[in-house]
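Lab notebook, bench 4. We co-purified these components, and the gel suggests they stay together. Before we commit to crystallization screens, I want a quick structural picture of the whole thing.
Request: model the full complex, all chains together.
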Amino acid sequence: MTSTLEKKEIEQITAIAPDPSWESEVREAAMRSIVTKPGKNWWIAVSLLSLVVVAGLGAWIYQLKHGMNSAGYNDQAFWAVYIADVVAFIGVSYGGAVVSAILRLSGQSWRAPLTRLSEGMALVTVLIGGAFIFPHLGRPERFLNIVAYPNFSSPLVWDFIAIATYTLATAIFFYLPLIPDMAVAKNLVDKGGKRARLFSILSLNWMGTKKQRALLHRVLTVISLIIIPLAVSVHSVLSWAFALTSRPGWMESVFPPYFVVAALYSGTALVIVTIYAFRKGYKLERFITDRHFVRLGYMMAALGLVYAYLTVADMLTEGYTGITTGWIQETLTGKYAIPFWFYVIAGEIVPIALVVMKKTRNAKGMTVAGVLVVISLWIKRIVIILPAATQPLISGQWGSYHFTWVSITVTLAGVAAIPLLLMILFRFIPLMSIDEMEEVGPLGSIEQISKETLKAAREESIPEPSKEESK
Amino acid sequence: MDERAGESGMKLLFNKNQHDIDGDSENANEVSRRKFLKIVGVGAGSVAAVGAGIELIPYKAWADSNPNGWGGNSGVSGMSAATMGSSQEVGNHQWAMVIDLRNCDGCKSCTAACQKAHYLTEDQTWIRVFEMGDSQGNTYYMPRPCMQCENPPCLDVCPVHATFRTDQGVVLVNQGRCIGCRMCMAACPYQARYFNWKAGAKYPDTGVAPTPEFPVPQRLGTAGKCTFCVGNLNHGLMSECASACPMGTIYNGDMITDVAINSLGNTVKLSKFLYENDAVAYKDEYNTHPRVWYIPGHGQNLDTNATTG
Amino acid sequence: MKKLLAFLLIVALSIFGSSLALAAPAASFSVTQGSGDSLNLSGSCGVGNCTSATFYAKSNQFAGSNFMQIGQAQANSNGNAQISYTPTWTGNTPFKVDFLGTSGSLVATQTFTFDVMKDPSGFPQSAIEFQRPLDSTGSILVKALLTIVALVWITLLGSFFLVVIRVPKLSKQASEEK
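Here is the predicted assembly.
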């Protein structure tokens, strides 16, 4: 599929990056976060982020004591910021899972430097998103009633099942590709240390034999196959929590794909932001190149266009007949006009323009686009939720939701928890999948190379580890 | 909503004054012949302000298609009480309510009495009086309790079975189980669900533990709603709202004994009263089958009631 | 202990009452726990000429601070009347019985306070809960979907444990082969 121009580039890259030093380079770079001691900036960032998270927990305790009114809720704004957080955080998690799973299934070799970071981001965000169910509930201590007295006709029970399944899948999907890396990592840290012991346990005594590789490859293919429909079902079910009510603005058949695409769109954006941050923090420019950002940027732009299309489809269908136009008027020209048009400009026009313009089609440009998309998609969720929730169903005034310090602090705590948990997580595991990077080689980690090429190259260059050990 | 329209016949869109519908006998016959009626009782101007029109289903249509009626045997909607669910036992009463809008002057005594009896906050209007507009720019008032749907959306979506329906047809909330997810508030098309948002409301020590029938004191972080004052009804007392109404607007009824009474001491045969006064069910196209019936209109009987009451 | 004392007091009162029946008719009244959550209310007017007894309960729940009527019963030839009653609340509740004589006039009134015991958490019994959609055709769909979910869990956990168990074994094999 490579064009002539790209072939030239491939030759150039091959010329620039000769093979032999690749293995040691990759190992050094991936282990950078483990081997080196955290610097001053790392500690400052972690303590600041922890402070925000602790403040959020404090705000939540305050809310538990004083009731959800302290978070700005009332009878006509019964669902607001926390459910938007749940949808948004679990949504971005999908991006991480999909970058890894879809690219793995379609045999995109250039995914290699990105998979670990995106899977880690997926795991962290799904945990945070799931945790946001607790501030959303009026009685979080009774949460397990869902297990004790489940009503299987309730979309929220479906949500619970779907999110639990998805979290399990994400965790397994994160751990399994880690096994070969752990085997490498245990030899690169101080022998006999705590970390060496931890890595040794996690590596399952991996030796990288042909049989082991075949087994892991097969299992990962199965899980990649499962995780894609699983993620689709999670966001469909999340959307049904809204779409299965009789509220104008929510009761729409377009909602499941609408939510799935929103999740993919914001998720790809957060993958871009995450890899940019880690590339900068750990100086991974050699491995994560502008080409990676541009490819992800293309993906993001395409998803953004699909999302814009679904937004139009949703509003036109509802608005044309004029029966239930209240929420559309409020969204387009009323109370929610500013956040809605902010989404249109910062969440669609600007990011797509950044991808389209050659000048900004680089790591920085894509990251700016990613940040804009993540923020405006959160705002879009608020714009989806609030007008329909606050509309009067019989007569009378529109309700209104007021952001309070409680809801803002709790939400910011969730936002801060993403980098915090990622920074801590990647102090214990390699930044990149060493195994995959070594498999695809310097060329494959940047360009798409076919499976056949890869196979041939592997047979030539990578010696059987068992032979190596016997030497 | 359209599924039902397709089944039952043509959909009529009224954009007329409310008086045409109850007062004019020709129109009333037309309504009953068509079996299905959808009244958009609000004009284009007020649609924007109000957001949703009134969607009403006439009692007559059902009664005509179910000639046996429900005099103790079958549900109003033709849904037999005995077939409402295999696990559902049919109680000795099937409580219902009739709200005669002709009498309502919007004084909100019902809301006040309800809030006093259940120690509710000012926001928690378990029975709320809505000010409605018609196409002529007139206003009329519509008290809205919980509709005690035979097919309650709130019951379907509750993840923990905290909402349940008793054998007397009353939908109640077990605040001891509710996790406070507010899915019921999203699902209710009548905005009849309320939540306990604020801590610190002072309740007198009644020495009574809260039950679903009488959820006082309200529990923080759980959902609540009109209980039909089913405790009162089972003890031969009227609901708080009905007994507080100075106009006799609200009738408590029992579908088994086919009787309804109001605060003025008027006792009526429920099925006949509904049939002859063109009673309607509100928003039944959501397939909710409310047990609260409205008699549309405003002011027709005001004079006679004013002298007696 | 209190209850026992109260009971003894009532027994004493009723004996005293019946002995003085002709002089000054005095009623007796007692409430005992019946089967389940029901209560047995039995009263005696102490004389044989009572016709009917009306029972009341005082509750803030329904009637403000007033007594509300909860049932009526005919008195037998000994002047005894009793009903069974299931309250819907719990707590310390005053009950009252009024006896009517043959002449139609009030002959006796007796109040008695009883601690109504009822487990509120056990209130919504499963018999009155709709188990939708599990009791209708939707149950097949629900079961099918739950089966799919179960299969997904089995596959996920299965692949996980497959790797966790097989990988060390394969390593062992490989090192043994050497």
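Chain A has one domain: 22-465. Worth comparing against the SEC data before the next meeting. The interface with chain C takes residues 151-153, 161, 165, 168-169, 172, 175-176, 179, 204-207, 209, 211-212, 215-216, 219, 222-223, 226, 230, 466, 469-470 of chain A (CB under 8 Å).
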